[in-house]
Write a structure and sequence with these properties.
- By secondary structure, this protein is α/β, with parallel strands linked by helices.
- It has a single domain, classed as UDP-N-acetylmuramoyl-L-alanine:D-glutamate ligase.
- The strands form 3 sheets. The protein has a 10-stranded mixed sheet with strand order 5-4-1-9-11-12-13-14-15-16, sandwiched between helices. A 4-stranded mixed sheet has the order 3-2-6-7.
- Strand 4, helix 2 and strand 5 form a beta-alpha-beta unit.
- Helix 1 crosses helix 8.
- The protein is globular and about 50 Å long.
- 49% of the residues are buried.
């Protein structure tokens, strides 16, 4: 079973433009409206390829209702937690050249009870060997996020044993994903994380993660440039040394690197002209999980990476945050290199 948690889902509106003229009136040739948010995008991509998952997410206001309607034809099973405020709406401007401009709204504030209910929904759904994907930013429009009223609260953890008291650890919002990791591990499940900023760093420092999926820019937040394969591998191994099993680094048009404590692999394919890069990283992560059969224990890492890159490549050819279906995914076009040359430039891959 794969469970996804999206703390800050969205209604994604994408506008196709011949070219973006800043400061001028721009007329779109087409508009695409999709349910969005990184974890939700993972569930949508899995569902489009016949892989079951449960999407846990907070929803509020009219856009929250719209998001549910957008999900109805996708086959994604959801567990929605109702919250005050309005689910955010994000805007993407897609120029014909392939350049994408994105504006993300902050999203509603999550209060203590809402976070507790989200945690409980994950804990109730996940069991031994299951995979929980926690993905995306935290609400309130900052990397750190914003959770109101942290402290003691009545919460629906009854009967869940040792996880009952973990919510008290959320004294700082940056502990949200780290505390979720404790909940997931207490259930015997694996936590996969795709986020950035302090919340991501705190979870990585806490350790116990099965997989993290930064892109090269997010990985570069270690404070130094990462121009070569060796630079990326060394930065990824710092995360592994802190207690993460695998680091999947998406490199945009240059493919992806998968790094463990002992091995590394690169995967990529022929150049593509993207329609939209929004959500491609989420499709990449979904492909990795699909390649593992939904359980990371004993997974063939190289083949999971090949599947991941094939899904990501298919996603960039689609408008908006549309997800690829099996007929669009070309695994045969993806090349795998084991222990790639550490001196190779990322830009040359």
């Amino acid at each position: 079973m794969i469970v996804t948690l999206t703390p800050n889902p969205s209604v994604d509106r994408a506008f196709d433009l011949a070219a973006l003229e800043v400061g001028e009136v721009n007329r779109a040739s087409a508009v695409h409206v999709d349910a969005g948010g990184k974890g939700l995008n993972v569930s949508r991509a899995l569902a489009a390829n016949g892989v079951a998952s449960l999407a846990v997410l907070p929803l509020g206001g009219s856009d929250g209702d719209l998001l549910i309607r957008l999900l109805e034809p996708t086959g994604v099973a959801i567990r929605a937690v109702r919250v005050p405020g309005e689910t955010r709406s994000n805007v993407t401007l897609q120029a014909a050249s392939g350049v994408t401009t994105k504006v993300n709204a902050p999203g509603p504030v999550l209060d203590t009870a809402a976070v507790a209910e989200l945690f409980a929904a994950v804990a109730e759904a996940a069991g031994p060997g299951d995979v929980v994907v926690a993905a995306g930013s935290l609400p309130c429009g900052s990397t750190e996020g914003c959770v109101a009223g942290l402290g003691e609260v009545d919460h629906p953890y009854a009967g869940l044993g040792e996880v009952d008291d973990l919510y008290a650890d959320l004294g700082e919002v940056n502990n949200l994903y780290a505390t979720l990791g404790e909940v997931v591990r207490a259930r015997g499940a694996w936590l996969v994380l795709d986020s950035s900023g302090p919340a991501f760093a705190t979870a990585v420092a806490a350790g116990g993660l099965a997989l993290v999926k930064p892109n090269d820019e997010e990985l570069g937040a270690v404070g130094r440039a990462l121009p070569t394969v060796g630079d990326v591998v060394r930065a990824a191994r710092e995360i592994v040394a802190a207690g993460t099993d695998r680091v999947l680094v998406s490199l945009g048009s240059h493919g992806a690197l998968l790094v463990t404590g002992s091995d590394s692999w690169w995967a990529g394919g022929p150049p593509l002209v993207p329609a939209s890069t929004v959500g491609a990283g989420d499709a990449t992560l979904a492909g990795f999980l699909a390649g593992s059969g939904g359980s990371l224990e004993g997974a063939d890492d190289a083949e999971c990476l090949r599947t991941a890159v094939a899904w990501g490549r298919a996603a960039v050819l689609l408008p908006g945050t549309a997800v690829p279906t099996p007929d669009l995914i070309d695994i045969g076009a993806v090349r795998i290199v084991c222990d790639p040359d550490p001196t190779a430039a990322i830009m040359g891959l």
